[in-house]
Automatic annotation (TrEMBL):
Example of a GO MF term: oxidoreductase activity
The protein's name: Nitroreductase domain-containing protein
GO biological process: cellular response to oxidative stress
Domain (Nitroreductase) ranges: 13-108
Taxonomic source organism: Xylaria grammica
Length: 150
């Protein structure tokens, strides 16, 4: 396997894992995370290059506030049994991480493109979903390999 900064797309897909143990001990500077996200937003493909993808990066205290709020809302709106079984453990797990990246589409960026191509208007929602997925993938490089256990 190549070094994390030189992975091919195939290697990145092959080595991708869902991480269920999250922690806030991160050695990557915030500036590097921002750089990765800017690059992903700028170069991820969008329908007719409308550049509709956007991100919000929350780290440290802002990240914790976000997950505290998510927990409060879930507790206020979900049945207690569902909250305790699903939402409580998930919000605790996500809060334990260093940061959160929120991905969304700026639909105003798409309006001019839709006006140029009205016959394709019904296709744009699906294409935006695809573009958002590519943005999320591009903005989420694989984690470093776990330490070797001897």
């Amino acid at each position: 396997m190549s070094s994390p900064s030189a992975l091919t797309l195939g290697e990145a897909i092959e080595n991708r894992r869902s991480v269920h143990k999250l922690y806030d001990d991160v050695s990557v500077p915030d500036s590097r995370i921002e750089e990765i996200m800017r690059h992903a937003v700028l170069y991820s493909p969008t329908p007719f290059n409308c550049q509709s993808g956007r991100t919000v990066l929350l780290v440290k205290d802002e990240h914790k506030k976000f997950w505290d709020l998510a927990r409060e809302i879930a507790q206020a709106t979900e049945p207690p049994a569902l909250f305790e079984k699903v939402y409580e453990p998930r919000t605790k797990m996500f809060r334990a991480a260093y940061g959160t990246i929120l991905f969304y589409d700026d639909l105003s960026a798409l309006e001019a493109t839709e006006q140029k191509w009205p016959m394709l208007k019904d296709k744009f929602p699906q294409w935006l979903d695809h573009a958002n997925g590519m943005l999320q993938y591009a903005g989420n490089p694989p984690p470093p390999p776990p330490p070797k256990m001897y």
